[in-house]
Design goal:
The chain has 130 residues and is an alpha+beta fold. Helix content is 28%, strand content 26%. It is globular, with a radius of gyration of 15 Å. The chain starts with a strand and ends with a helix.
């Protein structure tokens, strides 16, 4: 499921208005699956149901570079897809750091992809603390 953000919210986000965060958080509080696509050329945000498979996003890839930003386990992840479908491994980053690549298929959902990253990161963090 994909829906457009209200234009006034887009203006706040792209206008770097310091009050946009408060307004954006109000919208996010009503959305259980928090993700959106960020187009680089059109400067447009679209809501995205992260239970959809990555393969279902193919028709959205009309430009060669785009991002999906996803809130998962109280973290914001940026998923960067390049090229045309079928994509190679997407680049996933969290807190400005690129995460190691993990196995995924276009049939998996964004939720599943991020659960894999979350699980891998927890394993890595646990093993370094011991």
């Amino acid at each position: 499921m994909i829906t457009r953000l209200p234009i006034e919210l887009q203006r706040h986000i792209y206008g770097f208005d310091p009050t946009y965060r408060e307004k954006f958080d109000i919208v996010l509080s009503y959305v259980q699956r928090k993700a959106w696509i960020e187009w680089r050329i059109r400067k447009e945000l679209l809501w995205l149901d992260t239970s959809s498979s990555i393969k279902e996003l193919v028709w959205l890839n009309t430009f060669p570079i785009w991002f999906v930003r996803v809130y998962f386990q109280n973290e914001e992840y940026a998923i960067h897809f390049t090229g045309e479908f079928p994509w190679e491994q997407p680049e996933v980053s969290c807190r400005g750091k690129r995460l190691p690549r993990v196995d995924w298929t276009p049939a998996c959902t964004l939720d599943a992809l991020l659960r894999t990253y979350d699980f891998e990161n927890r394993l890595k963090n646990t093993s370094t603390q011991e």
